[in-house]
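HOLO CASE FILE
Compound: zinc ion
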Amino acid sequence: MRAACWNGKRTIEVQDVPDPKILNSRDAIVRITSTAICGSDLHLYNGFIPTMEKGDIIGHEFMGEVVEVGHSVDNLKVGDRVVVPFPIACGNCWSCRQELYSLCENSNPNAWMAAKLMGHSPAGIFGYSHMMGGYAGGQAQYARVPFADVGPLKVPEGLSDEQVLFLSDIFPTGYMGAEMCDIRPGDVIAVWGCGPVGQFAIASAYLLGAERVIAIDRFPYRLQMAREKAGAETINYEQADVYDTLMEMTGGRGPDACIDAVGMEAHTPGVVGAYDRAKQALMLETDRPIALREAIMACRNGGTVSVIGVYGGFIDKFPMGSVMNRSLTIKSGQAHVQRYMRPLLERIENGEIDPSFVITHRMRLEDAPRGYEMFVNKEDNCEKVVLKP
Ligand SMILES: [Zn+2]
Ligand SMILES: [Zn+2]
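Model generated. Tokens follow.
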């Protein structure tokens, strides 16, 4: 089959690889009909995620048709159309039984690698380094889906691939980011980052009852999407001081909750940004936590900071004094996607949201290298690329 492979920093190549096979009785093989490039794939692309190996098949947002099932998979049959969640979860372990699917204790065969960096290991993830399990990803014609009796969601007829594909990651991720804010009527939520996850965090904050959502980015087309499609008020951080503007917009109190949908490769003008870029380049810190620092400082006393942007390792100059003295709550996590797929599918079926609004580019799988290049350089107002194998 053909698959998009990581062949080094900023080198994605579509090449011939062996077809996946059923290895365990709970596996299924899915023929992929739609797959997407995620903002977190750009961290792989830019070489910030350790334990990638040449030839690794990438991609963790995919859907398609079941073409083969192992003998223990009794809820799916050949021909079913499914969306596959990005965390791989067994459904039986302690974490899975708490619905903490992205922390499954049985799906990462390389858990020791992740535990070395993080203390304990999270779940395995499709196409996201050997530290995260070394699973082949879904930017390919076919994928092996482990624990297929737990993860994949059958898609009802009448919904297009583009309407449901993002149940694999970015819609549940944005939704969980908003849910962690414990939104109450009248709340003002600020969202750092208007990439696809940020857009879904904004839309989800409204679904959960926020009164106002204020979105922060530097790309005019992303801010425009946040205003026109997701309904946010916006701040361009290259044109205005984010902290001062947020205080003005919230009567000096600060937002009730702040969502970091940026993560480890944040940008900022000025001295602090240069400091982080230099330290990251010298490997003195692995991540640039600019959005996170700003979110903490801006959040109102007693508020919540919800972190859904991806971090890989260690950060510097973390304003713990602000967190502790002002009674802030920090919540975070890779999305427990399996928990959200059904309720969010219902919202799509009810017409409350059409997730396809974030798609700006549709390409063939063969054009994946170009898709990565456009996405990373924000060429042609690229917000979200969907690939068709
Ligand atoms: Zn993703
Ligand atoms: Zn589990």
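CASE NOTES: The pocket of zinc ion (ligand 2) is lined by residues 89-90, 92-93, 95-96, 104-106 (CB under 6 Å). The longest strand covers residues 28-37.
CLOSED: yes
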